[in-house]
From TrEMBL:
<dbReference type="InterPro" id="IPR017896">
    <property type="entry name" value="4Fe4S_Fe-S-bd"/>
</dbReference>
<dbReference type="InterPro" id="IPR017900">
    <property type="entry name" value="4Fe4S_Fe_S_CS"/>
</dbReference>
<dbReference type="Pfam" id="PF13237">
    <property type="entry name" value="Fer4_10"/>
</dbReference>
<feature type="domain" description="4Fe-4S ferredoxin-type">
    <location>
        <begin position="108"/>
        <end position="137"/>
    </location>
</feature>
<feature type="domain" description="4Fe-4S ferredoxin-type">
    <location>
        <begin position="77"/>
        <end position="106"/>
    </location>
</feature>
<dbReference type="GO" id="GO:0051539">
    <property type="term" value="F:4 iron, 4 sulfur cluster binding"/>
</dbReference>
<dbReference type="InterPro" id="IPR018449">
    <property type="entry name" value="NIL_domain"/>
</dbReference>
<protein>
    <submittedName>
        <fullName>NIL domain-containing protein</fullName>
    </submittedName>
</protein>
<dbReference type="Pfam" id="PF09383">
    <property type="entry name" value="NIL"/>
</dbReference>
<keyword id="KW-0411">Iron-sulfur</keyword>
<keyword id="KW-0004">4Fe-4S</keyword>
<keyword id="KW-0479">Metal-binding</keyword>
<dbReference type="InterPro" id="IPR050572">
    <property type="entry name" value="Fe-S_Ferredoxin"/>
</dbReference>
<dbReference type="GO" id="GO:0046872">
    <property type="term" value="F:metal ion binding"/>
</dbReference>
<keyword id="KW-0408">Iron</keyword>
<dbReference type="InterPro" id="IPR045865">
    <property type="entry name" value="ACT-like_dom_sf"/>
</dbReference>
Length: 144
């Protein structure tokens, strides 16, 4: 069985120059897809990635990341839709590359499926009421 999970990774300044993703591939036999990264030597690094492999290999890879000091959070916790602010205009659905934001054909309301979200932040940029928000609080949700 193959397991695929979107992750938000935060690297402390002292390890941003290490070959961390390389080790995930070589030592843990994982497949990765980097969706977004901001990594500057000597400063904190942020990476949004999809990690794929058997559940055991993904678990071992995540344990490695945590052991070396990488903060690991599930990706679906990173973008939230503030229902109280949303005016159901649909602008976000036009730019969402994964269809995580879509129009319910019966109610004509904009729905958000965080499991499909890759945290590209296109919706955040186009939302005129700022209903789409980047949420970076620590998550207690279990990753695997």
């Amino acid at each position: 069985m193959i397991y695929k999970k979107g992750l938000y990774l935060k690297f402390p300044p002292d390890i941003v120059d290490k070959p961390i993703v390389y080790k995930l591939v070589k030592d843990y036999d994982l497949i990765f897809n980097i969706l977004k990264a901001t990594i500057t030597p000597g400063k904190e690094g942020i990476m949004i990635m999809e990690l794929e492999g058997t559940p055991e290999k993904v678990k071992n890879g995540l344990e490695y990341l945590k052991k070396i000091g990488v903060e690991v959070k599930p990706l679906e916790q990173q973008i939230i839709k503030n229902e109280e602010v949303c005016i159901q205009c649909g602008s976000c659905t036009a730019v969402c590359p994964t269809s995580a934001l879509y129009v319910d054909r019966e109610s004509f309301k904009i729905l958000f499926d965080p499991q499909k979200c890759t945290a590209c932040e296109f919706c955040v940029a186009v939302c005129i009421t700022k209903a789409m928000e980047v949420h970076v609080e620590s998550s207690t949700q279990k990753i695997l």
